[in-house]
Model the fold of this input.
Amino acid sequence: MEGAIDVLVIGAGVVGAAVAQRLAAREMSCVVIDRRARTGGEITERNSGVVHAGLYYPRDSLKTRLCVRGNRLTWDWAERTGVRHARTKKLIVAADEEEAASLEALISHGVACGVPELALVSKRELAVLEPEVRGVAALCSGSTGIIDPAELTASLIASARAKGAEVAVGAEVTRIDGEGDPYTVRTTQGDVIARAVVNAAGLDADEIARRAGIDRYTIHPCRGDYYRSRRPLAVRHLVYPVKTKGAPGLGVHVVLDLEGGVSFGPDANYVKDKRDYASPPDDKRARFGESVRKLFPAVADEDLEYSMSGIRPKLRAPLETEERDFVISEDLPRFVDLVGIESPGLTSALAIAEEVERILLP
Ligand SMILES: Cc1cc2nc3c(=O)[nH]c(=O)nc-3n(C[C@H](O)[C@H](O)[C@H](O)COP(=O)(O)OP(=O)(O)OC[C@H]3O[C@@H](n4cnc5c(N)ncnc54)[C@H](O)[C@@H]3O)c2cc1C
Done:
């Protein structure tokens, strides 16, 4: 890793992989580095795998703009490269009349944000579409579906490599010196001299920024647990509750995997440790089961088995009431921080990469 390269991307999760493939396609000499022994990321391995439509965020936010664009880019990419995916569609289910009234507002918001394929579903139609689900009405989002996050990331890394990018794993960034042109990035495998740096370090993006002297970010880890269904459930769509205003997640929902398995999750609980992946206590299952039964009354606690957890890299502190937007910021000359890339970051990765390209190659 000697000699000055055009750009060093720190982090080989889906965001770093998308950025690397985009910049390598523009003929920048590019190295992607990750402290883990392999590419694929950390948050990227522990999520719902949903390609979101972009319905939930303020109209002028990066989350909306990049999710709406990312949705199209991701489906196109998957179709072109053969990454496994399924356009399952999603139902947001109203539990009562008050929630049903809010669905119309959500459709208007989505339409204003450029989200395609939104439709209201009556109680009777819902019963036909998803007989196991309880609700009085639903919103159907036709552009939502699922993708294999590991395959998506691997395909982006492969494409970056094919265009000349180098990938270094097992190399942790420990220090960043210089104020640009170039930066000297110290790693456990030696120094990298780079004319530009992109910080795509997920849960540690605040730490990486600090190592470059930028101390304005604090990531608050917020854990979400998933429980799989032990018995087969006849469900074909992604099924979500109506989001509670101000909640740090979308609410416990159905997660479908590409093998036909059904899980529920993730809930949202702030934790101290960014790597708090220990199994939850046994008594959590009953509480989790209550959330599940709001949508699926026939699911018993015994049907649920803890499967995994993921940690959101939130910029929103535990006592704040509003969500924060993604940060995509050139905080030093040609040093781009990508911070707070929580959901819908998987969906938005290809669109985030376009933003980074615009900053570094205007
Ligand atoms: C529970 C949960 C559910 C989610 N569901 C969805 C969903 O359904 N749809 C959606 O669009 N989004 C979803 N998301 C969000 C999505 O998963 C993330 O936005 C995305 O995976 C972030 O990718 P990343 O590349 O930024 O981070 P990561 O995948 O974590 O990659 C960052 C990499 O940086 C490396 N790194 C860190 N520090 C260093 C260092 N010092 N030196 C070298 N390397 C370093 C890490 O090892 C890691 O591999 C969900 C997130 C969570 C937590």
User: Anything to note?
Assistant: Residues 10-16, 33-36, 41-44, 47-50, 52, 172-173, 200-204, 208, 224, 266, 310-312, 341-347 surround flavin-adenine dinucleotide (CB under 6 Å). The chain has a mean pLDDT of 96. The longest helix spans residues 62-81. The longest strand covers residues 304-314.
